[in-house]
């Protein structure tokens, strides 16, 4: 167990390409940290620099108190679980897990003890005699995890470990890895492109884009207080709705003004907008799909003008809720998550109310959040 | 020389006499052998290659008479074999340097393999990693099989594994499984990213030259066109290999001819990645979508857009071939 410290880390390819740009972060001992972002954002490169698979162009990397920039990957006391789980084809599960320990000259008794314990944790005790060919994808990935666990490293690095599994198994393994973290009580750094995985697994999430850290925070804070429009759009499914418009002042209230939409901000948000000089400026208004309500009670009880008229384009029935897509707010398509009992159908005209206490405003030039 | 370790273990078990195998850098081995010589040990066999030295030592007083004579005979044969092996290694080294030469005379006679061997070309993806660190891992991984390792100019090492160590028969799928297993071995145990290319079994050492040339061609093609592909078989990626082998003039004239027939606009990075993955996944939409972490419909939308923009539908085989050739020529 150890903390990992990345101090102003850069990865440069050639003269022009900066894959990771000034990555600066302290990862606490026993923390489950998730690096998330779109393809090419630098998350895997960062993980591979921690592993030693990629050289660090600039900056310092510490595992525990030891600077490891120049330490060979195998001597960093880390274990890595990859997206692919080839395993050793000629060895059974027990031998696959024992191989690394044998190389390190562990006694037979110690090897057996570690394997039995890891197999129990991963629920693969009954598979120890099987060869990789006789295992399903999920079972193979458990064995790959087992190989890492028996080494008892200071830090686990996981690079998209679930992306080769089907959707159902992915959800199941997500829970298994979380349980594993609780039992092993060790530091895990986990890379994924999947925001649901990031939200459900991480103690903290690092959202990356174009090699830069966009935000580091707990899942709740990332979701509720995104620092910029990219984070707001990347985290959450369906994604946050964005509408471009202008902040104006009408009859003493601050209003978001866009074609077909005019909503008044609550006092606390209006105060912030005034203080930061956003009156009469172009902004992007953001609202999450679950903060748009269809019930009349909410619309009537809402003290501010926050309702929108909509004609429904598409309805996706998720069973417990409906995703209702509509496009008549200007040119922008919007989506609302509403109760499945509403019985909405395409081409229906509906009135929807937005909970403006939960809305977001982003600067149109910098895309940074005002709130 | 790695099999010496196993031979020494076997001899020790069979005779119950003291015998020691040492392996390391020349300096390390010199220091250790001097220490043992002071204690009355003598060197029975010694060989070195690429800065690594291996020796076998025994205490003189413990080995006398028939056992001593048999041991000397055994290791004189092994030393001859080591010398032939070194001749083979030098020849392969020349081939890897781009200077194809005929195999040394008499090589087939001197180094006769009892069974075919499967070549694996290993390619380091990071400087500063030494193949020597693999020396103890590979024989253990192949459970003591007699392996031949040929260090080549950076970043390569050629490994020839007896066919019986990989099972009774080797089809392309099994070969790729072993290559994946080796890649996994280096990633998991050494934390090193090593590209592994598996070749077809070769009967005798002189055929290893052709096998190496084919694997090197594929390695260059992968580095150029599919840098993320870490495991491959020499039969895969035929178009990439073909384009790689073309001379610059032929490449230029072919590219010109195709571009005159189909004026292809510049594609952005996302489009190129989509097409490359689609081609690598044999035009399979579902697998490509999974590989790119996309919804299937998003991929179909991207392919439709590409068709609209280029006039070629990548889902149609012949049009896909043209598109792939154009991309490869541009990348080259």
TrEMBL record, chain A:
Database matches in SUPFAM superfamilies: MOP-like, P-loop containing nucleoside triphosphate hydrolases
Native species: Brevibacillus borstelensis AK1
Keyword Cell membrane on entry: no
Gene Ontology BP, a term: carbohydrate transport
Record-level GO cellular component terms: ATP-binding cassette (ABC) transporter complex, substrate-binding subunit-containing
Gene3D superfamilies registered for this protein in UniProt: 2.40.50.100, Nucleic acid-binding proteins, P-loop containing nucleotide triphosphate hydrolases
Name of the protein in question: ABC transporter ATP-binding protein
GO molecular function: ABC-type transporter activity; ATP binding; ATP hydrolysis activity
PANTHER family found in the cross-reference section: MALTODEXTRIN IMPORT ATP-BINDING PROTEIN MSMX, OSMOPROTECTIVE COMPOUNDS UPTAKE ATP-BINDING PROTEIN GGTA
UniProt superkingdom: Bacteria
Alphabetic keyword roster: ATP-binding, Nucleotide-binding, Transport
Domain ABC transporter intervals: 4-235
């Amino acid at each position: 167990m150890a903390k990992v410290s990345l101090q102003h880390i850069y990865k440069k390819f050639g003269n022009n390409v900066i894959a990771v740009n000034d990555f600066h972060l302290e990862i606490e001992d026993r923390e489950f940290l998730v690096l998330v972002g779109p393809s090419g954002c630098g998350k895997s490169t960062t993980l591979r620099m921690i592993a030693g698979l990629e050289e660090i162009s600039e900056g310092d990397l510490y595992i525990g108190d030891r600077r490891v920039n120049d330490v060979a990957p195998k001597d960093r006391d880390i274990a890595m679980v990859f997206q692919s789980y080839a395993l050793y084809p000629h060895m059974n599960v027990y031998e696959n897990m024992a191989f690394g320990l044998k190389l390190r000259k562990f006694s037979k008794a110690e090897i057996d003890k570690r394997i039995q314990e890891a197999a129990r944790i991963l629920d693969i005790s009954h598979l120890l005699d099987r060869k990789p060919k006789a295992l399903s994808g999920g079972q193979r990935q458990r064995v790959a995890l087992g190989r890492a666990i028996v080494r008892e490293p200071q830090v686990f690095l996981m690079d998209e470990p679930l992306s080769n599994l089907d959707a159902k198994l992915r959800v199941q393994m997500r829970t298994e890895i979380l349980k594993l973290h609780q039992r092993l009580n060790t530091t895990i750094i986990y890379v994924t492109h999947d925001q649901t995985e990031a939200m459900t697994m991480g103690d903290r999430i690092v959202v990356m884009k174009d090699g830069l850290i966009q935000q580091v925070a707990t899942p709740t804070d990332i979701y509720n207080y995104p620092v910029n429009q990219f984070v707001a759009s990347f985290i959450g499914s369906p994604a946050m709705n964005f509408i471009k418009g202008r902040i104006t002042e009408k009859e003493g209230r601050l209003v978001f003004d866009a074609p077909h939409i005019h909503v008044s901000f609550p006092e606390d948000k209006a105060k912030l907008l005034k203080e930061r000089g956003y009156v009469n400026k172009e902004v992007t208004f953001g609202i999450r799909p679950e903060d748009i309500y269809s019930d009349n009670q909410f619309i009537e009880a809402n003290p501010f003008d926050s309702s929108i008229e909509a004609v429904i384009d598409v309805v996706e029935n998720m069973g417990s809720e409906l995703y209702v897509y509509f496009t008549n707010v200007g040119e922008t398509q919007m989506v609302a998550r509403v109760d499945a009992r509403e019985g909405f159908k395409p081409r229906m005209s509906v009135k929807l109310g937005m909970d403006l206490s939960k809305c977001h405003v982003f600067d149109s030039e910098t895309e940074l959040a005002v709130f | 020389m790695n099999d010496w370790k196993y031979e020494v273990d076997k001899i020790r078990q069979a005779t119950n006499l003291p015998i020691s195998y040492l392996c390391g850098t020349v300096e390390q081995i010199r220091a250790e052998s001097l220490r043992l010589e002071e204690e009355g040990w003598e060197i029975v066999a010694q060989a070195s290659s690429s800065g690594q030295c291996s020796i076998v030592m025994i205490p003189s007083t413990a080995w006398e008479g028939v056992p001593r004579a048999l041991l000397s005979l055994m290791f004189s044969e092994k030393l001859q074999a080591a010398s032939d092996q070194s001749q083979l290694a030098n020849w392969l080294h020349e081939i890897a340097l781009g200077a194809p030469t005929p195999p040394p005379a008499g090589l087939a006679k001197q180094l006769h393999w009892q069974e075919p061997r499967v070549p694996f070309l290993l390619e380091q993806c990071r400087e500063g990693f030494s193949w020597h660190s693999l020396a103890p891992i590979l024989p253990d991984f192949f459970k003591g099989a007699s392996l031949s390792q040929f260090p080549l100019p950076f970043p390569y090492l050629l490994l020839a594994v007896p066919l019986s160590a990989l099972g009774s028969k080797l089809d392309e799928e099994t070969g790729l499984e072993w290559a994946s297993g080796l890649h996994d071995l280096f990633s998991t145990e050494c934390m090193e990213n090593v590209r592994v290319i598996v070749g077809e079994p070769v009967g005798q050492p002189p055929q290893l030259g052709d096998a190496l040339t084919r694997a090197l061609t594929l390695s260059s093609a992968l580095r150029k066109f599919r840098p993320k592909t870490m495991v491959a078989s020499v039969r895969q990626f035929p178009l990439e290999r073909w384009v790689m082998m073309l001379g610059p003039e032929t490449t230029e004239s072919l590219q010109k001819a195709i571009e005159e027939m189909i004026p292809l606009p510049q594609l952005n990075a996302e489009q190129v990645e989509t097409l490359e993955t689609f081609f690598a996944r044999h035009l399979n939409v579902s697998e490509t979508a999974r590989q790119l972490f996309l919804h299937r419909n998003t991929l179909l939308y991207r392919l439709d857009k590409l068709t609209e923009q280029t006039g070629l539908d990548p889902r149609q085989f012949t049009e896909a071939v043209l598109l792939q050739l154009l991309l490869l020529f541009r990348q080259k």
